[in-house]
């Protein structure tokens, strides 16, 4: 309840939350950061490229460049969070991708290519989320903390790169186990699984018009998702209103997983 003597401004200051967003410099993570920052929340953007984080232009945001698939780098983030935030109210894992912008393996051995693809995707999508969560989970606000992962329609259908799909699917049981573990502290853990989202770096410029049309045609809504569609779902799951929703995987894909 708002104390009768408090102004709305001071109430907003009291309620400002500390929000950590991996992959916060681009795409879905950036749209999400903008949404929380508009609420007056204090946002920390994480990603490997410092210049991308600095250019993101999220009002008042802190930035910390780190490769979150590396334990030592994640420990560095943990120290940064301890010094700047102390407590984390909302932890959002948007770091990831299918590796379209990553270096390719140089080998004639097909199994080397398989090894590279699975290792790369596991690092990008599973380890980034697991390492950062494990490093920060004791700092989550209790009660009221929120952990949010981003999976993919690929985890349900095995579409696209199967290594990518598998590395996203691995987040589902992790989220369920964490929800059980953190529930007694009043913390919820959920997963948002988007379909095709436009205006991100995900496809690395590799999206041709025919593929785009095919992906849009799979939806019942007749359109691609925007980063804002996914951000709004994350924002709602982080709200007080969603306090009894935990261990869920929410699909944001315009019905594409069901098909026509
Ligand atoms: N776009 C889609 O259609 C779609 C669909 C389903 C799911 N998703 C998922 O949505 C999430 C956000 O992707 P997006 O679409 O917004 O694409 P994006 O613009 O490429 O965002 C991915 C972000 O992750 C960061 N990142 C990647 N590896 C990292 C690492 N090892 N350590 C720290 N940061 C790392 C990237 O920054 P740096 O390169 O600077 O590190 C980038 O900012 C991803 O998990 C993706 O798999 C996307």
Question: Which helices and strands appear, and what pairs or packs with what?
Answer:
Blueprint: H1 8-15, E1 18-22, H2 27-38, E2 42-47, H3 50-55, E3 62-65, H4 71-84, E4 90-93, H5 110-136, E5 146-150, H6 154-157, H7 162-169, H8 171-182, E6 188-194, H9 209-217, H10 227-237, E7 249-252
Parallel strand pairs: 1-2, 1-4, 2-3, 4-5, 5-6, 6-7
Bound molecules: NADP nicotinamide-adenine-dinucleotide phosphate.
DSSP, total strands: 7
Distance between the termini: 46 Å
Low-confidence region ranges? 1-14
- Report the structural category: alpha/beta
If helices are DSSP runs of H or I spanning 4 or more residues, what is the number of helices?
10
Order of helices and strands: HEHEHEHEHEHHHEHHE
Helix fraction by DSSP (H/I, runs of at least 4): 40-55%
Main sheet: strand order: 3-2-1-4-5-6-7
What's the pLDDT, averaged over the residues? Answer: 94
Shape, per Cα inertia axes: globular
- Biggest sheet features: 7 strands, parallel
The radius of gyration is 18 Å
Strand content: 5-15%
What small ligands are held by the chains?
Answer: NADP nicotinamide-adenine-dinucleotide phosphate
